[in-house]
Automatic annotation (TrEMBL):
Keywords attached to this entry: ATP-binding, Hydrolase, Nucleotide-binding
A GO BP annotation: fructose 2,6-bisphosphate metabolic process
Any one GO molecular-function label of the UniProt entry: 6-phosphofructo-2-kinase activity
Enzyme class: hydrolase
Protein name: fructose-2,6-bisphosphate 2-phosphatase
Pfam families listed in its UniProt record: 6PF2K, His_Phos_1
Family annotation (InterPro entries): 6Pfruct_kin, 6Phosfructo_kin, His_Pase_superF_clade-1, His_PPase_superfam, P-loop_NTPase
Organism for this UniProt entry: Thamnidium elegans
Binding site for substrate: R222, H223, G224, E225, S226, L227, F228, N229, R273
């Protein structure tokens, strides 16, 4: 029996090597996981490496090499089997099949095998004929792959080009009119879409159409310290404290020193404290209601001590599962992720954006870029009076923090701690401040996840 709750979709990657297929697979996986949809990548390349080892010569990929063809077919079959098992035993929702062999015959086989098991198949083809982009891809991604770990880079590039040639012999672009597919031509210059069914497939397609691969950076800052922060109260729409106002005054200089002369656009929430924080910045501004702080419902305007006293059960439940806990009459982090989805979509599309928002909202966006799990997300450290710069790379995200030497309270509460927390006149964040630089110091990021869960699909590179 098939009802909507056991909807299962297999995204099958199609395209020649070095067309960014694995990158696209990781992005889709991270996006869906962030939304709370159970997603996993099955990479035929990994199965092949397990089967026949590393450092294979290009001749292995020659379609006339029968042994090579046999092994590669075996790897593809193993990966497909594992994906089917994952759908059936682990109740997966979206499996991403990252393979290279892209012939009509292979697609018909995959289509038939999966649809017979009630798994919808969405082919995602990446087509690219821009040699510069392909060469860049090879240099950036492929040469750091385990396949080439012990090879001279020039020799490896040449070998890889020959490998691509072998694939070109059997490659057939998707044109089958009775397959569901999206074809991405030259990263964003053209899309061809066929037979998309249902809401989730449409979401994936819409996401892919917003995806760009050019390198960029994104900046986040919380509002300056607010009057509510000083009193340890949550929610509300308070203005800035005197120190928060100092941060707002120093922000243009911090931006000038560290972000430079870019044509920035500043996005704020619709709340007083972010608008006040941005007011001295001389850039175009946009207010987003979606960037407003987590709605704390009946707890709005209370301190954590008051919440603990008045709603002890709620307080404990929140500590147990902070991501899913919904304030009475308010929101949960899960709600917030859905509210922020359009912002993420716009961030993928735009460049040069500085977002001035709130602790919980920045945590959600930060988790998307850093690949944090839902367990880690509500505990990400987003210090006050600091600009966080994120630089997404192919399979990781670099992070830098620019801190202004204006004191603030620390609003961070680790898991399992009671309502009590530090209160001090001094800067009490435990982020070590480097001794160099005047107002725009780069401080070492100390955002170590609380739970040792490996982020889906990315490794964290913290730069100093
Ligand atoms: C790749 O496609 C060709 C042509 O359809 C087929 O002969 C070959 O077995 C396929 N290889 C794999 C590993 O699926
Ligand atoms: C998958 O769903 C079935 C039926 O709802 C359930 O019995 C089973 O425990 C689930 N398995 C996992 C790994 O969640
Ligand atoms: C793919 O599978 C569907 C459902 O079984 C079928 O209607 C369609 O003809 C298949 N397409 C191809 C190209 O095999
Ligand atoms: C759909 O795909 C099947 C299997 O490849 C093929 O036999 C059939 O002719 C296709 N139907 C149409 C209408 O294109």
């Amino acid at each position: 029996m098939n009802n909507s709750s056991d909807l299962r979709i297999a995204c099958v990657m199609v395209g020649l090597p070095a067309r960014g297929k694995t990158y696209i697979a990781y992005k889709v996986s991270r996006y869906l996981t962030w939304l709370g949809i159970k997603t996993q990548i099955f990479s035929v390349g990994n199965y092949r490496r397990e089967l026949v080892g590393l450092n294979l010569p290009h001749t292995f990929f020659d379609p006339h090499n029968t042994e090579g063809v046999k092994k590669r077919r075996e790897a593809a079959a193993c990966a497909l089997d594992d994906m089917i098992t994952w759908f059936e035993k682990d109740n997966g929702t979206v499996g991403i099949f990252d393979a290279t062999n892209s012939s009509k015959k292979t697609r018909a086989w995959i289509n038939e095998t999966l649809t017979a098991r009630n798994i919808q198949v969405l082919f995602i083809e990446s087509v690219c004929d821009d040699d510069d982009v392909i060469l860049c891809n090879i240099k950036d991604v492929k040469l750091s792959s385990p396949d080439y770990s012990e090879r001279d880079p020039d020799e490896a590039t040449e070998d890889f080009m020959k490998r691509i040639k072998h694939y070109e012999e059997t490659y057939e672009t998707v044109t089958e009119e009775n397959l569901t597919y999206i074809k991405l031509v030259n990263v964003g210059s053209q899309y061809i879409i066929n037979m998309i069914r249902g809401y989730l497939e449409s979401r994936i397609v819409f996401y892919l159409m917003n995806l760009h691969t050019r390198p960029k950076r994104i900046w986040f800052s919380r509002h300056g310290e607010s009057l509510f922060n000083l009193e340890d109260k949550i929610g509300g729409d308070a203005g800035l404290s005197p120190r928060g106002e100092q941060y707002a005054l120093k922000l243009p200089e911090l931006v000038r020193q560290n972000i430079g002369g870019r044509p920035l656009t500043v996005w704020t929430s619709s709340m007083t404290r972010t608008i006040q924080t941005a007011r001295h910045l001389d850039f175009p501004k946009k207010q987003w209601k979606a960037l407003d702080e987590l709605d704390t419902g009946v707890c709005d305007g209370m301190t954590y001590d008051e919440i603990e006293a008045k709603y002890p059960d709620d307080f404990a439940r929140r500590d147990e599962d902070k991501f899913n806990y919904r304030y009475r009459g308010g929101e949960s982090y899960r709600d917030l992720v859905l509210r922020l989805e359009p912002v993420i979509m716009d961030l993928e599309r735009h460049e040069n954006i500085l977002i001035i928002s709130h602790q919980a909202t920045i945590r959600c966006m930060y988790a998307y870029f850093m690949g944090l799990s839902h367990e880690q997300l509500p505990y990400a450290r987003i210090p006050l009076h600091t600009i966080i710069e994120l630089k997404p790379k192919a399979f990781s995200c670099e992070e830098k923090l620019y801190h202004v030497d204006v004191g603030s309270v620390d609003t961070y509460r680790p898991k399992g701690q009671t309502a009590r927390k530090l209160k001090d006149d001094k800067f009490v964040s435990d982020i070590p401040v480097s001794s160099e630089g005047a107002s725009g110091e780069i401080v070492d990021s100390n955002n170590a996840p609380i739970l040792p869960i490996k982020p889906i699909g990315i490794t964290r590179t913290n730069t100093r």
